[in-house]
Amino acid sequence: MNTRQNLQNPKNWPQNVEYVRDLQFLNSKITENLSLNSQKLQYPQADMATMERLSSSTFYATGGSSASGAGKNLQKLSSRSNPLVTIKIESLEKYPSHPAYPYSGLFATKDLKPGQLITPYYGRATSAEDTDPKSDYCLRLGELTVDANIIGNEGRFVNDYRGIMQKPNAEFREFINIDHNRVEMGIFVIKAKDMPRGIRKKTEITVSYGKAFWKSRNLLRETSS
Ligand SMILES: C[S@@+](CC[C@H](N)C(=O)[O-])C[C@H]1O[C@@H](n2cnc3c(N)ncnc32)[C@H](O)[C@@H]1O
C-alpha cells in the first residue's frame, strides 16, 4: 500500500524529489515478493549479467541479503515513530572540505542507541532489469532495487563514511516492518564495542556503500577499505 497522502516535506528536502513514507511499487508482482503473507519470500529471478551489473551500481546491506530466507531471523519492528524526531537532513554548503560538498547529509538530532533503527530506506522498488544504472540512490533489497533518486525519504541522504570518518557508524540492514507486513531495508546504528554509546547528537550518520559502488564510478581511493 502506498502512503502518498499530502506529506509535509522535511526541512531541506529538494523540490525535484517526491517525499514518501513507504516503498513505491512499479507493479504488484514486486509487492507480493516482499509480503510475508505468502510465507515465502521469492524475488524475481534475474540473469547473472543483470545481477553483476546490480552489484556495482547499487549499495547493499552489510553481510548481504537475508530476506531470501523467508524473512527468518529478521528483527520485527514498527517504523511509525516519526524519523524527523531523531534525524535531520543538513546542507553541507557550510562544510567546503566535506567530500559530498555542497550537497547534503543525514545528521542525528538526538543520541541514537546501538542497534536502533534510524529510518527505513524508501524509494521506488524495481526489478533488477529495471534498475537505473545512472542513479546514485539505488539500494539492493534481495534481487530488487530501491531507487530513491526521484522518490524517497530521509534515508536517501545518508553518505558513505569515506573521507568523513574512520569507519561507518550506521549500516543498511533488512528488517520486517510490522506496519507493512513485509521485508524492508533500514539504516541502523552499528553495534560495536568501540561505539558503546551509539551515535551522539549532531554527528553525521554514515554507512558503507561498499567498494563496488565507488569502483564502478572510478572513485575508489587506493587507501580506502
Ligand atoms: C545516496 S546519495 C547521498 C546523499 C547526497 N549527498 C545528496 O545530498 O543527495 C549518494 C551520493 O552522494 C555522494 N556521496 C556520498 N558519500 C560520499 C563520500 N563519502 N564522498 C564523496 N561523495 C559522497 C556521491 O555523489 C554519491 O553518489
UniProtKB/TrEMBL annotation:
Transmembrane segments: none annotated. Residues 90-210 form the SET domain. Pfam families: SET. InterPro entries: SET_dom (IPR001214), SET_dom_sf (IPR046341). This is SET domain-containing protein.
